[in-house]
Amino acid sequence: MTVLMVTGTSTGVGKTVVTAALAATARADGLTVAVCKPAQTGIADGGLDESDIEVVQRLSGVRGIELARFPEPLAPDVAARRSGRPMLELDGVLDAVRVLDAAHDLVLVEGAGGVAVRLGADGFTVLDIARGVGASVLIVASAELGTLNHSALTVAAVRAAGVECAGLVIGSWPADPDLAARVNLDELPLVTELELIACLPEGAGALEPAEFDALANAKFGEFTGSLPGYPT
Length: 232
Prior knowledge:
The chain has one domain (2-225): P-loop containing nucleotide triphosphate hydrolases (Rossmann fold), CATH 3.40.50.300. 46% of the residues are buried. The chain has eight helices and seven strands; from the N terminus they run E-H-E-H-E-H-H-E-H-E-H-E-H-E-H. It has helices at residues 15-28, 52-60, 76-83, 90-103, 126-133, 147-160, 179-192, 209-225; strands at residues 2-8, 33-41, 64-70, 106-114, 136-141, 165-173, 196-201. Strands 3-2-4-1-5-6-7 form a seven-stranded parallel β-sheet, sandwiched between helices. The chain is of the alpha/beta class. Helix content is 42%, strand content 23%.
């Protein structure tokens, strides 16, 4: 069984669409796939906005679970305190991921924000989850100016925690890339010493499922097949 964490250099870089693309690719391979979102913030109970899990299901057809939801668009531990709802506990998250792992070929765990964002009690992060379940981490970055610094810092934090970096993805490649974005294609692998696996075009999250499946398989087919423990 395989568990892969999907994290980002910041918020809004395309983690959810990348997660959906990985799920669609594995599903097309005939594998059983599950997605876990430990903490969803910025979505009100009964609201009309799509949650990240709902976006993944719409695009890939893969169902997922959300362990906690907080209405304000803040870091999960802060949102929990302000809402008066219980904070996530690391042991509970690890148990949920292990249950999914026992029943599926691939489990994708999508974080919130970046690697240092506190998800719950005692300030645990996606890196604590990754260590706890033996997962590697896929890092989603932006293409814009500033991404070299953000990406290098993120990769350094992951490696310092003793967690394996599975690679780097640009989550939203602009339709009209500027000079910085074009140069970053070459510079990101240099500053992070990671393979740039794929660039998903901006607007990919608005595609119809069939179009999204084709895009996902073109971008991630080779990558998912190379994951440790991935059935072939």
